[in-house]
Amino acid sequence: MRLTVIGCAGSVAGPDNPASSYVLEADADGRAWRLLLELGSGSVGPLQAVVDPTELDGVLISHGHPDHCADLASLSVLFRYGPTQGTDLPPLPLWGPEGIDERVRQVEGATDDAGLEPFAWRAMAPGETRELGPFTITAARAWHPVPALAYRIEGPAEVGGRATLVFTGDTDLSDEVVEVAAGADLLLAEAGWAHRDINPPGIHLTGRQAGELARRAGVNRLVVTHVPSWVDPAPTLAQARAEHPDAQLATRGVIFTV
Ligand SMILES: [Zn+2]
Ligand SMILES: [Zn+2]
Q1: What CA–CA distance (Å, rounded) separates 56 from 54?
Q2: Is the pTM of this model over 0.70?
Q3: C-alpha 63 to ligand 2 mean position (Å)
Q4: Which one of 26, 40, 90, 211 has the minimum C-beta count within 10 Å?
Q5: For the segment 65-101, what is each residue's pLDDT rounded down to a tens digit?
Q6: Can you give the residue ranges of every domain in the chain?
Q7: Closest-lying ligand to the alpha carbon of 145?
């Protein structure tokens, strides 16, 4: 699998980095499969430089905050009025916690399901596992102020066999998130709280907590993401490395192979 970072700024798009969005690609059955993971504010433009959106096979959203799903409404507009208007593309699976469909309609100002085209929306519940092409996707409850999911995605490894990527979405540290991350080849963990903050519970991880999550879950690689543009990422990464020495930082445009 190949994970391309479209954007990874935490909480809002930064001056040179969109909010959360990643494309996960894998080769199977003689073709490439493409799963879009989040489409946060500012990401729908740069997404098009990386992949033709009509070649996406599915969209996975962690929760309904704008930095994770705001540009879904723009993607809907692109499909309905862009170059593919009138073509007969199959519905695009859109999965996430309850309420994402309503968020898209709200941003669109739509009152009916036309505002959800081309998406085939299906809510996903914690503990649920689904197949999408070569990907096996399991959702777990994340600890955040709105319904939120972390995802465990198993798919074809670049070196043969199968590999596992875990994405935390936004979450505080919890046993459920440790459990879903267990033994992952790559953990993409948010660190939305600055290293200096005294933080309220149930919202984000610090760099140290992202590292603690990686250590407790026994993951192979840790990639720290969702650092807000106004936070110096160096101390966040140093904190994560105190717990997991090989931790890396997600940056826009980087491709991680799994
Ligand atoms: Zn966020
Ligand atoms: Zn959030």
Answers
A1: 6
A2: yes
A3: 7
A4: 90
A5: 999 999 999 999 999 999 888 888 999 999 999 999 9
A6: 2-257
A7: 2
